Amino acid sequence: MTQRTITAALAATAFLGFAFAGHAEPANDTLIIDGSEIITRAAPAAHLDGALTELISGWQFRDTETRAIQMDDFDNPGMIFVDRGIDSWNTADGTDGKSCASCHEGPESMKGLRAVTPRVDAKSGKVMNIESYINDCRTTRMGAEAWGDKAEAMTDMLALISLQSRGELVNVAVDGAAAPIYAQGKEIYYTRYGQLELSCANCHEDNNGNYIRSDHLSQGQTNGFPVYRLKDAKLTSAQGRFVGCVRDTRAETFKIGSDEFNALELYVASRGNGLAVEGVSVRN
Ligand code: HEC
Ligand code: HEC
């Protein structure tokens, strides 16, 4: 640890009663769902420049029981939300009387999308995550209202669409139109925020494997999102998770859907290039 990291860690101890104390290696388990292996460890992409020596899914940092729940779709409470997503996919909404199915046929037409998003639309320069695509269709193609970012209808649909790419390797573009967004996201990732002066990297890059309060710190990868959190008994999107993490540093957070969080989501997703999309993962 550098002197500054130690100071920040001490400040954190004073404020929240935690310290980066106690280290445990993550599990080295194999995630198999429905007979297929989901890659949870991979070699880092070149663009990470050695920042991580190995990519490890958050699944490996959870305890045996939590890992087991994700291995069986009948036990995985996130799958209930996928079912609700299917209902909503087939239900007409908005002034045009259309459902998602009217134009996209089945949800399997979304296969592959989760692995390559967020991505930057070359024409508009806008960052498109799955939420932006959904609301774009709702408002411009259905005459329906946009769903709020934390609305259950939105996280249900995220779960349904993500599941279609389960097992596919994350491959978010970092060059071309994405280059400036990637740079912006990377800068945010390494900036210290809040009274605790902690960056995402301080916790998830420098201290993964360490315990913070009773939590085993992971690399903060987003390949598992949306995530069913046992403690909330509901689904959380990647940006919804970022809000909680920034608040833990006692900082004002960026808004979900802001340029800053969109850039951060793209950057964080690209740090997981090579890990597999987990569909709906289970975390504590
Ligand atoms: C009136 C037809 C229509 C309806 C209804 C519609 N969409 Fe779309 N959707 C489109 C078109 C057209 C595109 C753009 C396809 C392209 O550019 O390749 C699109 C793109 C998308 C994309 C991005 C897909 C990709 O591979 O880039 C997603 C995700 C999406 N729609 C989700 C939904 C969801 C969820 C609903 C229901 C809430 C919905 N759409 C309703 C026509 C529609
Ligand atoms: C004070 C330490 C701390 C900071 C700073 C922090 N996080 Fe976290 N984060 C946690 C803890 C604790 C968890 C829950 C355990 C885990 O999965 O690491 C978590 C979980 C996550 C997860 C969920 C991983 C999974 O597989 O479920 C993501 C994604 C994440 N953080 C991203 C970020 C981002 C992006 C930032 C910067 C804006 C950030 N975090 C800053 C402590 C932190």
From TrEMBL:
Lineage: Bacteria, Pseudomonadati, Pseudomonadota, Alphaproteobacteria, Rhodobacterales
Record text on cofactor binding: Binds 2 heme groups per subunit.
Residue stretches in coiled coil: none
Cofactor annotation: heme c; heme
Catalytic residues in the record: 245 (cysteine persulfide intermediate)
GO annotation (BP), single: sulfur oxidation
Residue span, Cytochrome c domain: 84-168, 184-277
Amino-acid positions noted as binding heme c 2 in the UniProt annotation, renumbered to this chain: 200, 203-204, 245
Subcellular location per the Swiss-Prot or TrEMBL entry: Periplasm
EC assignment: 2.8.5.2
Entry GO terms, CC: cytochrome complex; periplasmic space
Quaternary data: Heterodimer of SoxA and SoxX.
Binding locations of heme c 1: 100, 103-104, 137
Key words of the record: Electron transport, Heme, Iron, Metal-binding, Periplasm, Signal, Transferase, Transport
Protein's name according to its UniProt entry: SoxAX cytochrome complex subunit A
Residues that coordinate or bind substrate: 241
Annotated InterPro entries: Cyt_c-like_dom, Cyt_c-like_dom_sf, SoxA
SUPFAM superfamilies reported in the protein's UniProt record: Cytochrome c
Reaction(s) the record says it catalyses: L-cysteinyl-[SoxY protein] + thiosulfate + 2 Fe(III)-[cytochrome c] = S-sulfosulfanyl-L-cysteinyl-[SoxY protein] + 2 Fe(II)-[cytochrome c] + 2 H(+); S-sulfanyl-L-cysteinyl-[SoxY protein] + thiosulfate + 2 Fe(III)-[cytochrome c] = S-(2-sulfodisulfanyl)-L-cysteinyl-[SoxY protein] + 2 Fe(II)-[cytochrome c] + 2 H(+)
